[in-house]
Amino acid sequence: MVLCAIGCTGPSDRSDPSGNDDSTEACEDGLHTADVDYFNADTGHRSSYSVEIEIEDGRVTAIHFSNGGYLDRSRLTSEPLEEGEATVVDDRGREYQVQVSCT
């Protein structure tokens, strides 16, 4: 299993017109720096990275590695970001736990 943690929400002092509190603020679409923990269950290899990620509509759509490699939306499936974290799975079944701070 590979895990990627991304922190994209934070406290907000805004509330919506219906009177419901908006207790989190989502990351804006675009590039963000994130910490990623990776684990490949097939090999037992673990790694941690600080990488650039792309966010669109509250999901990770790309991971850009420092060596120039990347995974994009054609190879990734991301759960929605919650409290700055999401699990992302690539087309080979590897999981990344992503954590990002969008403040």
Task: Give a verbal description of the structure.
The structure is a single chain. The chain has 103 residues and is mostly beta strands. The chain has a single domain (4-9, 27-100), classed as PH-domain like (Roll). The chain has no helices and 8 strands. The chain has strands at 4-5, 30-40, 45-56, 59-64, 70-72, 76-78, 85-90, 95-100. Strands 1, 2, 3, 4, 5, 6, 7 and 8 form an 8-stranded mixed beta sheet that branches. Strand 6 and strand 7 form a beta hairpin. It is globular, with a radius of gyration of 14 Å. The chain starts with a strand and ends with a strand.
Features of this protein?
single chain, 103 residues, mainly beta, PH-domain like, 8-stranded mixed β-sheet, globular, disordered N terminus
Please provide the ordered H/E string of secondary-structure elements: EEEEEEEE
Oligomer: single chain
Could you give a short account of the major beta sheet? 8 strands, mixed
Tell me the count of domains. 1
Q: Catalogue the unreliable spans.
A: 1-24
Percent in helix:
under 10%
**Share of β-strand residues:** over 45%
Give the N-terminus to C-terminus distance in angstroms. 29 Å
Give the topology, please.
Blueprint: E1 4-5, E2 30-40, E3 45-56, E4 59-64, E5 70-72, E6 76-78, E7 85-90, E8 95-100
Parallel strand pairs: 1-8
Antiparallel strand pairs: 2-3, 2-8, 3-4, 4-5, 6-7, 7-8
